[in-house]
Structure formats: C-alpha cells, structure tokens
Amino acid sequence: MNQRESRKEERNDKSEIPIDALSINEHSAEVNVEDESRKEVFWHSSAIILGAALEKHFAKGFPCFPSSNSNGFFYEIFLKEQTVSQEDQEKLQQIVESYIQENLPFEKLVLPKQELLEVFKENEFKLRLLDRMDQQMIQVCRFGSFLEICEKPIVKEAGQIKAIKLLNVSSSYWSGDCEAESLQRISGISWPSDEMMKEWEKAQEEAAARDHRKIGLNQELFFFHPLSPACAFWYPKGALMYNRLIEFIRRQYRLRGFMEVITPNIYNSKLWEQSGHWQHYKEDMFVFDVEKEHFGLKPMNCPGHALMFANRLRSYNELPLRFADFGVLHRNESSGALSGLTRVRRFQIDDAHIFCRYDQIGSEIKAFLDFLEFTYEKVFGFTFNLNLSTRPEHYLGEIEVWDEAEAALKKVLDGSGRAWKVNAGDGAFYGPKIDITIQDALKRNHQCATVQLDFQMPIRFDLHYFDEKGERHRPVMIHRAILGSLERFFGIITESFAGKWPFWLSPRQAKIVCVHESFREYAREVKDKIYGSGFEVEFDENCAELMNRQIRDGQLAAFNFILVIGKREIANRSVNVRGRDNVVHGEIPIDVLVEKFEKFARNYVKDSEISFR
C-alpha cells in the first residue's frame, strides 16, 4: 500500500485514539483572532488546508510542514527541480477555496509512531520530523485524505475560515540549513470574515507605501548590493541620520553615567569558547583561520566587556560600572531570513553592559525603565509593553539568587506605574529578563530594547570585585540596549514616520526658494547662516522654475520647512516660512528662525510645525 492510499484508509482499530475534543476545539466555537494564541490556531489550521492543496496539485511533491508566524501562515514543500509558478499559485488558490466551501472537518488523532513511519515512508522530510520526536504516540490531523503531523490546536472545520488568500512563493532551506535541500515556501493569510480581509488589505497598502526599503531609496538614505548581502550602504543623508541616532544616545549616556568604550571586532575562538558562544552560536558567526588559529568576527559585545572588567582589580566603589559600545557586529544570518534593515548581517547596537552588586539590580533596572520611557514615549512617540520572563526549567545558578533577582525586577516593575505581564519560564538559562515591545503607527509590534540579568558570564570570566573589607565578591552583569540594532530601529521609524522625519533627525530640514534669480545672493547668505548653525539646508540656484513648483517639490521631498525669499524678506532680513504640509507660518527674521531650529533640535521636538506657531 502506498503513502497516499494509507492516508485515505479508514482506521477503526484501537490504535486511533481521539484527543480530548475540548482541548482541541476550544477555539472553534468563536474564532477571535485578536488574541495571539487563537490567531496562531486559525493560521496553523489554514496552513494545513494549504498542505492538502499542495499534495493534491503536486502529485510528485513531498509536503514538509505547516507553520504560522505574526504575518500569517505558510507551507513548505520539496519539488526537486520544479518551482511553483503563477499558474500553480492560482490553481492552489482555487483548491483551498473549494475545501473551505465544502466545510471539510479537521480530525485530531493520536497514532503510534511506528505506524506513522510506515505511512510516511516515501516522504523523507516527514520521517526526519518523526525522528526528532521522542514520544511513541504522535498527534496528527486528518483533513480529508490529507494527514499531517500536528501537535498544535486547530479549528473544528474549514468553513470557519471565511477568507483566505495565497500571497507569494519563495525559496527556503530545510531546517534553515543552506547546505540542505531547497524547498518552496507558499505563504498566505486568512481571516474569519471578509471584512477583516478587506481591513488587512487596506493595512497592507499602507504598509507598502511606508516600506522602509522604498523610502530609503527614494530619499537616498541607504541601499543594498549583492556583492555585500544584507550589509547596508548608507548615503550621506542616511549616514547623517544614523549618526544622529548615535549622538542622541551618547548625549543620554553622559547624563546617565555610562562610559563609552571601543573593543576589537575580531577575537580568537578561545574567547568564544570561554563565553559559551562557540559551542552554541558558532554557526551564526563569520569564522576564519589566521596562522593556524581560529578567529571570528564578533556577533555581540559582552565577552569583550567582560575582558575589560577583568583586566584589573575592581573595587566596590566603582560599581555600578556601565560600559557602552557602538562596535560593529556581524551575524551570519541565513539568506532566507534577511529582510531590508530589519534583518541584516552587519549592524551596530546601542549596547551596554552594567557590572553591579546584587543589591544594585533594582536601581539599575529602574534607571533603565526611565531611559526607555524618555526615548520611546517622549522622543519617538511609541507606546511599549513590558513582560517579565522568569526562570526556565533548565537554568544555571542557585535558585535563591534567581528568586532574589526576580523579586527585585518585580518590585521595580510594580513601582513603574505601568502594566506588565509575566512570561513564566521564558527567561534565558543564565538569568531573568524584561522583554519590551513597541507599537508603531500601523499598530505593529516590534521588539527592540532589552534588559537581561546574567549570572553566568561573571562566572565564566571569573569576574570579581573587592568590598570595603577587602573580600572578593562576584558581580552581576546586566545586558541592556534601548534602540537595539540601529539598522532595525532605523527601518521601524522609517515606516512609522512614513519618511516624514522629526526636525532633529531629518536630513532635509529646510529648503530655500527664490521668487526671482536676482535674490540669489541673499539666499546664499541665508543658507550659510542656517548651515553654519548646524542645520541641513539646501538651495537650488536654478531659480528659473516657478516658485510654486519649487515649493511643491520641496514638500514632496519631505523638507520640514520651505523658506521663500522675495523683496520684502531681503529688506527685513527675514524669510517666509511654510511647512511640508503646506502650513504657512509667515515672515520670520533669520535670527529668530535659527533660535527656533535650535529649540526643535535640543528638545527632540516630534512635530515642529505645531511647535512653530
């Protein structure tokens, strides 16, 4: 009996054990995709429907597995030399829609592993999945004649999916290993109503208009080149903005007691072996040999900072010691995971590591939250959520130390006046952490900032300090970042601001427009005054173009302010100011304008047009 016939065979013996219907179908009575866990159930079920369609359409294909993520669902299939064409995608769309119209049921079963090995004996990929599973009874889902390994909850029937759309086809590798087989990944989205699909499509149109890759090219901020994959090239205007983000953080560092350091980019593998990264992270590093020794480009700064702390004796009165580092990092991300600035191979982090006593944890976390609130809410206008991730099942260190650290974090979070949740058991093996997610203008969630307690790095590097009695003590290490990856953060704010930058960050702060070419000399004088005061200003000496067209071009280019010069402005040593949204502010003396610009930049004003009035 072949694989497909085995799937279609009715099984009525005792080896087929139904799972508790309540645990499987608890989401089926009412599909509420506002809840993330229920959304995952909905999309995972949709992926299984797609898998059934793929098996029907590609008789010689090997379905691999269904999956869902924050953007929808996908299914991966091995097709040897074949690829999924546009015609194939259209046919698959018809098949999944027919399954939904038929309202085929999902049936959750438990089958012996040995039986499944026989059922899937012709599909090497399913056999690999089964080989990874230790249990002898395996949860599966039967959808029509299609059988899928499925340990997750699913909906009761296909008819609960009212709207489904297959989006695109891409290539991937089995298990993300570029040395493994190349697979075809078909992605899709589904919703429990047509109205929700229309809302999603509208949001996608808005997101496409705000795509940071598109804006980056249009505004000449950055680009990518295949000769250096996933490593951004920053144009002058983009580099200016990138450096302004760093300058913003540096200014805060001086106010908040951080000391910036510079550390090497290349380390001997012995460092990574000592830190534990060589054993667990080597595949994600760029490694090479130098004089028969193994070296690697650093993917993170923490081991280097541990070496700096250990380089001389440390006293208790030096703590907390806060090392900050903007060093260039490299991570060997798989090509399938790369995405514009949000997933790159070369990047920088506003990275810092704090070495402190255990009784200083609370005050350091409190200071971190203050820094976070100032940056995200007051400067960039984001809202954010806090989640405390506590001790996992497998952890290192003493449980008393964990309990004390978690209690300190809870106390700070309680005192912050902000809502927070517990992610029980989701901490790293070396310490608890606070996960921070921000929400952008499109209501999308992103994780940028992080703060993580580390009890193990100080042990691995034998870090210690001496107290007032001369006794040795082990410090705790706190990993923290506010913006996180500068590249990723830049991509997020590009889309959130839609390329309309706040004045202090903008690479196009002012554009001068002359009413007549005879006013060029005064226009140059105004430009020199503004530029000499530290602001970005442009003046097109070609005054032959109509004034209204120049103003319109400046607004489309997202200049914060258009400065119009005519006879009256020359006589009064002024300019006539209007904003990029065509709000006319009127005639302003040059010195007053510069003072306003200085205030906007100094105070990180988000909406300078409103503040201008």
Automatic annotation (TrEMBL):
Main location: cytoplasm
Recorded catalytic activity of this chain's protein: tRNA(Thr) + L-threonine + ATP = L-threonyl-tRNA(Thr) + AMP + diphosphate + H(+)
Name of this protein: Probable threonine--tRNA ligase, cytoplasmic
Keyword Acyltransferase listed: no
Pfam family, one: HGTP_anticodon
PROSITE patterns, sorted: AA_TRNA_LIGASE_II
UniProt GO cellular component terms: mitochondrion
Enzyme class per UniProt: ligase
